[in-house]
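Take a look at my tokenised protein here and describe the backbone shape.
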Amino acid sequence: MPPRTMKFRATTVAAVLVLGTTLLAASPQAGATEPAPVTDYCQGQCDDILPPGENGNATLVDILGNKAFGTHPKHSDDQLDRYNGLVAGQSGLTDQKLTDFFNDASFGVPKGQVESVTSPRGDVTITRDKATGVPHIKGTTRYGTEFGAGFAAGQDRLWLMDLFRHIGRGELTSFAGGALANQGLEQQFWPQAPYTEADLEAQVEYIKTHEGARGEQAMADAQAYVDGINAYRTESKNGRYFPGEYVLTGKVDAITNVGEIQPFKLTDLISIASVVGGQFGGGGGGEVQAALSLLAAQQKYGVAEGTKVWESFRQREDPEAVLTIHDGTSFPYAGKPGKARGTALPDAGSVTAEPVIYDRTGSAGTDKKAPVKAPAPLKKAQGIYDDGVIPEGSLPGSGSGAQKRGMSNALLVSGKNTASGNPVAVFGPQTGYFAPQLMMLQELQGPGISARGVSFAGVGMYIQMGRGQDYAWSATSAGQDITDTYAIDLCEPDGSTPTKGSTHYVYHGACTAMETLEHTNSWKPTVADSTAKGSYRMQVRRTNYGIVTHRATVGGKPVAYTSLRTTYRHEADSIIGFQMLNDPSYVKDAASFQRAASNIDYAFNWFYADSRTASYYNSGMNPVRAAGVDPALPVRAARAYEWQGYEPAANTAAYTPFAAHPHSSGQDYYISWNNKQAKGYATAGFGLGAVHRGDLLDDRVAKLVEEGGVTRASLTRAMAEAAVTDLRGEQLLPELLKVIRSKPVTDPELNGAVQQLESWRASGSQRRESSPGSHTYTHADAVRIMDAWWPKLVEAEFKPGLGDDLYGALTVNVATDESPAASHGASGAHSGSAFQYGWWGFVDKDLRQVLGKPVKGPLARTYCGNGDAGSCRDALLASLKQAVARPATEVYPGDDNCKAGQQWCADSIVHRPLGGIGQKAIHWQNRPTYQQVVEFPAHR
């Protein structure tokens, strides 16, 4: 029995007994009594928001109207202005004004607010409210409830779900067109989670057979959900009110209605889960890139000193990093071993990436267009997907040079520090900005289910973040290390000398064939995507140690580097934890919440609040590694260095127990913005150091707690203020100015620029309009100077000392900047989320070292001016002079949404259209996409 299953069964026996006869409700024929009336213990103090709007489906007529006249389908944009309005409305915010900027998230629909009632089966109703059109699904049977959830998902996100099942299956170009961005997207996502149909079916069966009664119920719920989707798919196709994108991409004929919307299958949910989990719940990996920067450091400084320099940039355990658990409790995991064993660094210059694409034809690898002759009525929509259904870089972790991206934030204050004596929480996930959103709002009420919140479209059997009857929960991406890189020795079955291209490897002493997984995709131009006809074959090699990502030599011998993730082959196992979170008979307090969250396998930070307790738990399938293995670097593929208890067939191993995961209840406050979780919990990548965007929250919430009397409005204000603050201006500019002002600045132009930066810093370092709708920042010149200066000052500070090779290698590990206007960020331009990845912590430590200030966990060397304050000042001023000279048209070069020089527009959030409906740009906010503001005054 796999260790995880043992852990699950040991901690949920009572829950399984509670389920009892609920399995009887899994079939369409089984009946159930009317659920008991649900008491809403939030009493009007739960609010939420998810822009732009609930309605994510648009008929062909809707799409053409949007393109011709700018009209929007009802409820497709009615949450956008309220979300945007908080920028201007934050300063005067009170508890009474929260619903000016958020939805009332109470259970049910008040009398007089019912817009429509649909009953796709006799055992379920879908009631939509007038204000937002959110579906409130109430079932008298378990099957009916989940069928209704699927039907509502079809109503609101049919096209989006279809897109994502094809992304997960590596079939996006064949489905939606061969645009270069579509090619890039499937080439990045499919190799991370490549599966055959048998693999997907095996994951369904694994949940049924290894997760007890809850596993059987989960798959029955999932099947009911799929049945609901398919019922809407059929009805909308026959009724001709299906999403218009199916016409524009050539799936259905607009005149004859001939064509098909392919039925959904249970395995489609596994493929969708792989995309969602890969984007937001992964962690670790990147060990080959880390090894390359370590080698560059060793080549420059020698092995001992180079390793010391590299470790100071790696910052696995920075004592100055902002923490979620700040009471000193330690949770040791994935740290640097005292004496590493099995590390497999590549020979210098030997690393090559494993090819994914073969046999290109036609437009493959190009952006060649061949527009079709569109019927006159469709002309307005022609080419809407020429840049891809999801423009390059829009999804977190996608696009050229993209990094793994963790997102979302949370602010919670315990009752002893609030005005009411009850905990207050403001939290939600940052999942990018799309039209429609990747998630959808819904309320689910049925046997064993009682919750309102968001679910990712296509896997919405349960609420994934939201509220129950007397509690609320949310998550941020944690990113701890659940992915390792192995160096497998290559071999030839005939005993001849292997090469880097060999397709066999040594596994436990035997020369073993790599498994080849492949997809052949082809496309032709449509009205929506004019990309010329083309095709290619995608191929990956799978081994018992994961997917091959690179080839190299180690000590002169050929190896393949593989990536092994604990959640591979377990993409949907987390359904058990979500089922528990939705079950009011299971979650009754902070302790039961933590147990539920522990059954979620992806790497997330989970937060909880009820009327009594604020709580936190870090989830994830953390492997128990062999003693002495360094998880930050590649390791040799041998039995001695494998995860403990590792079985490759189902990819199971021993995992760290519940108590080893960072967790806490009742701390004075909690913040999370994808920062370090706790002392001892080593970071999985670069960039979690002395300055992090989490500081923007921590400083503000700590001040509120010190003052006492925290309210929903004051905590929301803290979040909203941080959301428009430039991290560099608030945290780094004081040190930069101290170095520069150590002597008078005699150049009048430079002195004027310094004064502008000082004025901006004194007013809060915000990127905020001078007045609502002005589209001009109050300190526009200072913001422009900082945007132009930061990349130049980092280079001037570090490159001379590190040298070109090491500096370049480290910037691959972590980019130097991620300002709102930076198009090179992990989710591209106009994505809202900013200041997660950057060299802020490196600059902070280095400048404090130059200034002679105390530094815990210092860099191994001082780089600015080679440690000389005067030379450092000269370098900073020279880079500032270059920045001042750059006009706005160069700093903000323009794109499809903005003209060159339009600063506000360059920062602005643009909801990337995933369908045919576009949305207006809104003010930049570094803020959750879906957000809750909650304070429960009562409890069951």
